[in-house]
Amino acid sequence: MSKEQTILGNAEWCQFKTLNIPAVKARIDSGAKTSSIQAVNIHRIKKGGATWVSFEVHPLQDNLSFSIHCEAKIVDTRLVRSSSGIAEKRYVIKVPIQLGEHTFDIELTLANRDGMDFRMLLGREAMRNRFLVDPSKTFQLGNYTDQELKSMYSYLMYSKSGLNIGLLATDRSLYSNKRLMEAGTARGHEMRFYNIQQCYMRLDTDTPEIRYRGGSIINDLDAIIPRIRPSMTFYGCALLRQFNSIGTYCLNSDTSISQSRDKLFSSQLFSANNINIPITGFAKSPLDTKDLISMVGGAPLIIKLLQSAQGKGVVSAETNKAAESVINAFKSLQANILVQEFIKEAAGKDLRCFVVNGKVVAAIERTAIKGEFRSNIHMGGVAKKVKITPEERKLAVKAAKILDLAVAGVDIIRSNKGPLLLEVNSSPGLEGIETATGKNIANEMIIAIEKKLKFKHHS
Prior knowledge:
The chain is α+β, with helices and mostly antiparallel strands. The chain contains eleven helices and 27 strands.
């Protein structure tokens, strides 16, 4: 073994001074020929007569709040095949990399690695004649604490603003909740997490209160972000009414959330406001089952519990006989259900449009796994970034407005009759859509609060 060769572990920290990236964790992969770095919003630009590329890097995994704008000269365009076997054209740049005490030029392809465990991959071309790899070890050239990383990226954070924002949810560890806490902190706000089940209220004309575990009074929040799971709708909305009564701005109101969770009421609102939805039926008596099925076009059809969410409580029936059995079974349990026509031409796909303050900030197409008709990502569906039509954009914005939702996940299905509204989610998840699009949607939600409160950052 040459004395010049250094041992690397299976992961190491890298630095790119010319790109203003102080630290990015790299997967050391001798099985890959080319090195790559996570990049989004990639655009070719002209600079001094040469062809360059501008792009954004989110250097820390699971934290889209830190975004670095980069520019570099394009040295090549290559067809690169990913580990999943998909080939795509990627721009190649050449920049100096620092690994421990070693600094040298490296070729990097620009790829969207948001769904990967590492934001960078160091391939064998960069390691040849320089390093050896011991896959049983990690960070042989040094590691960083969370505090050290925070200090390195402090220049990307706003100074403390004095705005106090609460997040009302159940599980702090969920991706969406972590991202919102990160995004608010990165914009200089004081972020506080409140577990819905540990909040309680004092109802009084003169001094209404909301208290948190142990008796601490919550009376200094400028805004509250509700992330209420379906099983907590009643209590969560009661808390939002109480927050509103003491002057705290609620990003989504209790009324808008309650309406969105009632599928029958929201469907009636959409129909009354000329929004196209799949033909839907509702009945109470088992005597009307056959006509109910016929009314929506017969099988195959979709049967939904009125309080269903995230694809739960939604079943398909392939035949009229199967539909009758399912419907009557639900009715015998005193469950309220909707019966809806099946849009065959959609082929198990739908659109999720994320609306913030009357604007679609991101959109994805979701495809159900084979054998399933629901495309929800957490149920195995696959998501990809998609370009929506002006008609679909208008439909998503109008649906959110009808329910008076500042933040909404609007689900649309493409049919032979044009776009149809499936449903509107008042607590849409961020993970699938941020991963697929690379967009910092949590940041958009914090900005929405700032605009509502007419808050401006001090320079």
